[in-house]
Amino acid sequence: MLRRPDRYDYMSLIDRPVIRWPNGARIAFWVVPNIEFYELDPPGGQGRPIWPRPQPDVLSYSLRDFGNRVGVWRVIEALSQFKIRASVSLNAAVADHLPDIVEACLKHEWELFSHGIYNTRLISGMTDDQVREVIGDSLAAIKKRSGQDVVGWLGPAISATESMFDLLPEFGIKYTIDMVPDDQPVPIKVRSGRLIAMPYSTEINDIRVMGVRGYPPEDWADMMKACFDQLYAEGENNGMVCCMPLHPYVVGQAHRIGALYNVLEHVSSHDGVWFATGREITDHFYAHNYEEALRFSAKKGKVAQ
Questions:
Q1: Rounded (5°) CA angle 106-107-109
Q2: Residues 111, 88: contact at Cβ < 8 Å?
Q3: CA gap 75, 242 in Å, rounded
Q4: What is the pLDDT of residue 131?
Q5: Is there a cis peptide before residue 185, judged by omega within 30 degrees of 0?
Q6: Which residue, 146, 113, 98, is CA-closest to 33?
Q7: Domains of the chain
Q8: Is 232 in contact with 26 (CB distance < 8 Å)?
Q9: Which candidate, 33, 172, 58, places its Cα nearest to that of 111?
């Protein structure tokens, strides 16, 4: 359980350092397909049920398998038509069990970052050494299959431990999307090294909106476009980040994929949009804004005292 609320400092939206994205872009737009690997019969004792129905939950398992058999290929096709590179939240088991998917991502020059090994293996309750093993094994598996050095992290099923964030920089992780406190990158306090939280629009995540709440795809598309429009307007004065999280087994369904095209067409019709990967946004923030954010936070903290 995460108990400490002081991993990042408070900075109000209307009073913070200004971010300028490359070429004067108002907004950095990044797409995060969660490409995941599930087990039909995951181990118990993880603190909560992994499947929503009694095990073996063949319905839920096969639905997620649909994402890797069908949905992901529709998502790849949609993004490739608009020449948008994605940043994949990847369960490392995909690299071993479904290498064709990884090869397709690499063909389109997508970034791969770690989503743990299996989405059915939570890290909540693990010791530091056990968490290190998951991080290390997942990064090694992705590097072996792709050649990429992994710099991003999302805990499997967004699970965490109190000290997980302190461990990530040990492995070269530069950003996490486990925390979602802002629409701009946020420095995270860790024992050593550097880490930032990258914006991850969990409130309009396709699985939350369509998969859990049951909204029709056109409503999800309207939400996604409304989010983009607001951030685009605010980005005139201070560069913002808009993330589009996707799950192929949700948005990749035949009756929903059209909504993705709708959103991509809308976003692509605007000037001043930086279509970036998580790695690119992170590198730019570290190079131009990270130190200023720390100085600003320290100054505000002294004033508050």
A1: 60
A2: yes
A3: 18
A4: 98
A5: no
A6: 113
A7: 30-304 (3.20.20.370)
A8: yes
A9: 33
